[in-house]
Amino acid sequence: MATQICPSESLGLTEIFNTTLHPITIDTTLPYIILICIAFTFVTANCILAVFNFVTLVSRMNDYDLELKYAIFWNLSLFTSVSIVYLLMLIFLRAAIICQLLAEMMLAFAVYQFLNLLMIMHGGKAAMIHNITGTIVTLFPLCWCYWCKRRRVESRNLIVYNILIAQMVVVVPGVDFLGIVIYTENPSWYNYEEPFSPYSAYLYLNLFRVISFMAGNSSLTRMVQANWYYLKGTRLLTKYILLILVLNSVFIFRLLISFLGKISLIKCTATFPLIDIMNQIHAFSTILIMLIAGIIARLVYITFPGSRMLETHRVAVQTKDIIEKSVNVQYPKDVTSEEDPFVTPYGPN
């Protein structure tokens, strides 16, 4: 079998970002090409709607008080900052897994934001629709990962980063902005009977978030266990554990802040300054989670060469070639071979 070289124990975060990687490879299979086309179609439509919606909001600014204006511009700038951070992750991490992740997240996030912008422009039962949409989009990475696993597409690492990043990013800043605007214009839209109130829908949404995050933790744990022999006693193991603990701590804190902010808004017990502070904490924790998940992705990419294989329908052939070259088995010659004139089917001459 091929021998895996244990990574250097002195590998630090600086080296993680500075390590030279092989050129980016992109899956060219038909489903992936279709996915990219759909994603960019939604992103284009999303940009057009965003501009139109922004102009509409600016034209209605006189109807809002100063605190609400600040909240609106904060969330718009937040949407931009999250996009920039994600773009920086793509540029500096330069891992093939991030390229594939980009198209998938574009699709999930663009569809969600597309629906949000339509709701803002056309009104409607926004609180209910918003939470149902959030739940569906949160399920998207799980369904996509299940499809990848069924198709045997590099399931371990693809599932980990879809779950850890997708369900963090798809329900982002425009959420509270949407809730504040709709609540200000028509508070009665929040008065639903159980079990279909915004309160219950938000609980369901966070339940799916927690389930998906637990699945991501499970995948990370299995990955560390599978490579325990190479990680045991190294600093890399300590870094993995610390990053996973920090990631979980930030996620729990973010979930708590988001939960308290949403519930206080629904129960009409929060003022706009309090909501705005929660929005900021929610935003920065989201960006922090993305960066930590990106660091883990890069660490995995460098530590385990197997994680670089995205087109895993070729893995069987590649593995076979590696085994043959590394083991270099010498098969005995056939006793009937004509290369040996002293051997015949009937024994030596």
How are the elements arranged and paired?
Blueprint (H helix, E strand, L loop, with lengths): L12 H6 L11 H30 L6 H28 L2 H27 L3 H25 L4 H15 L4 H12 L12 H29 L1 H4 L3 H32 L5 H32 L11 H13 L15 E2 L2 E2 L1
Antiparallel strand pairs: 1-2
Care to describe what's here?
With about 350 residues, the protein is mainly alpha-helical. The chain has one domain. A two-stranded antiparallel sheet has the order 1-2. Strand 1 and strand 2 form a beta hairpin. Helix 3 runs antiparallel to helix 7 and helix 4 packs antiparallel against helix 5. The radius of gyration is 26 Å and the shape is elongated. The N terminus and C terminus are likely disordered.
**Order of strands in the sheet with most strands:** 1-2
Main sheet?
2 strands, antiparallel
Return the average pLDDT rounded to an integer. Answer: 54
Instruction: Encode the helix/strand succession as letters.
Output: HHHHHHHHHHHHEE
Rg for CA atoms: 26 Å
End-to-end C-alpha gap:
40 Å
Outline type: elongated
Please estimate the helix content: over 70%
Q: How large is the count of helical segments?
A: 12
How many domains comprise the coordinates?
1
Keywords: Membrane, Transmembrane, Transmembrane helix
Subcellular location: Membrane
Membrane topology: Multi-pass membrane protein
InterPro entries: Ostalpha/TMEM184C
